[in-house]
Structures are given as structure tokens and as C-alpha cells.
Design a protein that fits this description.
The protein is mainly α. The protein is built from eight helices and no strands. The protein has two domains: 1-70, no CATH class; 81-170, Recoverin, domain 1, CATH 1.10.238. It has helices at residues 2-16, 19-25, 30-40, 50-71, 81-110, 130-140, 143-147, 157-168. The longest helix has 30 residues, at 81-110.
């Protein structure tokens, strides 16, 4: 009886710890699942063997052990709520910083003349995809004029930040 319960528990743990179960649990995009599949299909045959699956689980387990050790800042072998919150805040802050850098880099790329401002011509690429541009235009009117808060005919990085708020409210 204990063997049946143990083997059933083991089967459940293996099922929920597979890369695809994790991807599905987090409702990741299909491309994420595809990249994950390619990552763990080490021989490139288009299928995940038991050995590849076990290697994937081992890799993910090691990553989780490392993450746990990083959270255990006082080294006592356990993670308190405060340690977990601190790690979560650190991860959020890093992600926020990464996104801000991405936006800054995009702004700099659009700023062809390098003056730190976007002219109407330089800002034409700001709306993203055509459908998104149309939605923003329908909801907010002329995008450039809407973002140009000080009316100087140029967009600063701060003024462009308002676009992200518009996108979130779409």
C-alpha cells in the first residue's frame, strides 16, 4: 500500500515538474514552450526521451536549489517570509530595470540625430504594430500631440513614458 501511494506521488511529482507542465501552469506562450522543447531535446530528434526529460528535471531542480540558497540570506537552511519577500522584490526590481533599459535603448535608436528628443518624423515608429497604433489613435487621437505634454514639437523620454500607460489602458 505504501509503495502504491509512493509511486503515485512520484508520478504526480514528475508530471507537475516536467518543463511542459510548468510552462502550461504559467500559461506561457506557445513560443516559450517551443523554445523549452528545443532546449531539452538535446539530440535534436524532435522528441524528448526519458533520459532528456530526467536531465531537464535535474537542471530545473539545480536551478531551484540555487534560487533557494540565494533566498536563504542568513544561511540557516530555511527561507523565512521576509527572505522570500526580499528575493521577490529583488527579482521585480531587476525585471523593471531590464524593461526600462529596453525602452531607453529603443528611444535612443529612434533618436536618429542624437539630440535626446524625438521629432515628429523620428517618432513615427512609436506606436508599435499597426493595430495597436490604430487603437491608440482611436482612443487618444493624434499620438504625437497627445504625448507632447509641453507642446514644444519634440518628445522627451519622460513624455514617451506616457505611451506605456496608454498601452496598458487599451
Amino acid at each position: 500500500m505504501k509503495f502504491l501511494i509512493s509511486s503515485g506521488l512520484l508520478a504526480c511529482l514528475l508530471a507537475i515538474s516536467s518543463p511542459w507542465a510548468i510552462a502550461a501552469h504559467h500559461k506561457q506562450s506557445a513560443s516559450f514552450g517551443h523554445k523549452l522543447f528545443e532546449r531539452f531535446d538535446s539530440d535534436g530528434d524532435g522528441a524528448i526521451s526519458t533520459a532528456e526529460h530526467e536531465a531537464a528535471i535535474a537542471e530545473m531542480s539545480e536551478q531551484r536549489r540555487q534560487r533557494f540558497a540565494a533566498m536563504d540570506t542568513n544561511g540557516d537552511g530555511s527561507v523565512s517570509k521576509d527572505e522570500a519577500r526580499a528575493m521577490a522584490k529583488e527579482r521585480r526590481d531587476k525585471q523593471k530595470q531590464k524593461i526600462q533599459q529596453k525602452h531607453s535603448d529603443r528611444f535612443d535608436k529612434l533618436d536618429v540625430d542624437g539630440d535626446g528628443m524625438l521629432s515628429r518624423e523620428e517618432a513615427k515608429a512609436l506606436g508599435g504594430r499597426d493595430k495597436l497604433k490604430q487603437k491608440i489613435q482611436q482612443k487618444h487621437g493624434d499620438l504625437f500631440d497627445k504625448l507632447d505634454a509641453n507642446g514644444d514639437g519634440m518628445l522627451s523620454k519622460e513624455e514617451v513614458k506616457a505611451l506605456r500607460k496608454m498601452r496598458r489602458s487599451k
